[in-house]
Amino acid sequence: MLRYILRRLAWSVPTLLLVTFLVYIALRIGTNPVESYKRVNPRASRAKIQQYIDVNGLDPNFIQGYFKWLKNFITGDWAPSIKGRREVWPALKDAMANTLRLGIAATVVGIFFGLIFGVLAALRPGGRRDVFINTSAFVGISIPPFISAILLQLLFAVYWQRWFGFSLFPTSGVYPAGHTGFDLFLMLKFMALPTIIVAIQIIATYSRYMRSSLLDVLNSDYMRTARSKGISERRILIKHGMRNALIPVVTIAALDVGSIVGGLIITENIFSYPGMGLYFLKSFGEGDFPLLMPWMVVIVASILLFNLIADISYAWLDPRIRLE
Amino acid sequence: MPGLTQGSALSEQNEKVLSPRQMALRRFVSHKAAVVSCIIIGVLALFVILAPFTARYGVNQSVQAPPNSFLSPRSNAWLGTDDIGRDLYSRLIYGVRVSLLIGLASAVISVTLGALVGAVAGFRGGKFDDILMRVTDLFLAFPFLVTLLVVRNVLGGLPWLKPLTGEMNSVRFIIVLFSIFGWMGVARIVRGQVLSLKEREFVEAARAVGASRRYIITRHLLPNSVGPIMVALTFSVVGSIIGESTLAFFGYGPQAGDGATSLGILVGAAKGAVQTGFWWLAVFPCLMLIIVALSINFIGDALRDATDPRLDRGA
Hints:
The structure holds 2 protein chains of 2 kinds.
Chain A: H1 2-31, H2 33-40, H3 46-56, H4 62-74, H5 88-123, H6 128-142, H7 145-164, H8 184-218, H9 221-228, H10 233-255, H11 257-270, H12 276-286, H13 289-317
Helix pairs in contact in A: 1-13, 5-6, 5-8, 5-11, 5-12, 6-8, 7-8, 7-11, 8-10, 8-11, 9-10, 10-13, 11-12, 12-13
Chain B: H1 2-14, H2 20-29, H3 32-49, H4 51-54, H5 88-124, H6 126-141, H7 144-157, H8 162-165, H9 171-197, H10 201-208, H11 213-224, H12 226-249, H13 263-276, H14 279-307
């Protein structure tokens, strides 16, 4: 097992390098960093521009430039953003913290309810409850998050205020303007709508996964054996059914991190929530190469990490994989 | 849905032998939501094709002399008007027309491409297959919007692609973009299908009598994957329509040249309408997108059930 993990870990380093190289090329072609620097700082001197090119590794030769960038990135010599020369790490760190908070909240809520609905649906397949849950989940998957965000915003933030005189959930930010310090209640109130939006997608996805996974397990031979031994129905479901049904779901959950981040990006932008998504869209719009590259590295690294977790958890649960 | 298939399976035994296609049709029709969806999409398509007759005003025409902006729904503008007094109902019809065109065109291109690449990869295996699947996995693991925006800019940043893609804010560019995006998912599905098909006896028999690789792929493997390919086609239409709306929503979509519009542009305008409380500008485009996405998804879901005989077991 340890050897398997080490082998996978060793593989992830070249993968990370290769993917960041591809991202580097894509950003060089797609956002044209030097041009955007000149656009944002029209009066920059020739020396300033040359310095910007040097520290970001923006040589005309992509391969040389990438290694220059990589060296500066690893040694912690990060270039400041092109607009306002802000330090990149503090901005990235705040964005990560905010996104993690929202992402964890949404994932916990989403997986919890998703699993419950999935189990409820699988207990009586074809019944009215199953059809209802399955259809709702299908509708939930079909509606893109920005659509539900607009509609919920309109209902809870704008029209609620009009009808009842107070706004139930605020529509933007983490705290009201001018607020300082930590306030859990306010924070939860501000996070409620974005969390719901992201959670809807997760609930819909996982209730379907859980349903089909549990159905497979419930139809298996060892369930019949357990029943014939006279174990109580409740114990069968929890100890034999749920436990085995969760195995594929856990693996899928780890592989799914990319789509959860995708939902977060869209939702954050609509609610002006200062997380990774808002950070990305802002810096992408400005072609801010020094801000974008570290963001990409974080995203690529976390996707690879969760892939690794998925593989390891799968190998741990199913010993046949390790021998490959 | 599931309960119904059991009934039809029983009745099938008493009747004459049905061809696989008839059985698939039967399973499809038993999916009630899909039948309703087909009717909805049919009506929508009719409205959209007959746009000059069904729309009450031109794309860029205002409903009355100023003041005409942000009129709430009324008799001369059923769904209200937008910021410069254009009829939302007519614009929705024209918008859905463009969006359906984008969806269909990019779906057809990406499915053709994906089916061919997937079939070759699955049939030949080896290095080509490995590399292809790695690239596909990588692309699909990334957050959708990030890849979409980056690839969009890369496409726009390569001058030698200009003749193919056109201007970055044109509809053609969007179609090319989603074709490039869509083929990977299809390739993965078709590859899986081909992998399981190529070990079957009839393919072995064809190989034994000396059929060429190309003949086997085009005559045996692809026709036998028609079910999954059709399903991929429907989902790919939805994917492109939603993708276009997402791009437009974040300001990277096709530009409304000459007042032309798309579902995405209308949904994008909804963002600004939320805070000001012009609810009709937000609700109707969003509802239209939901209806389109949901109907096509239901059709795809029913197609999947219908073309996959293994699912015909009532569970």
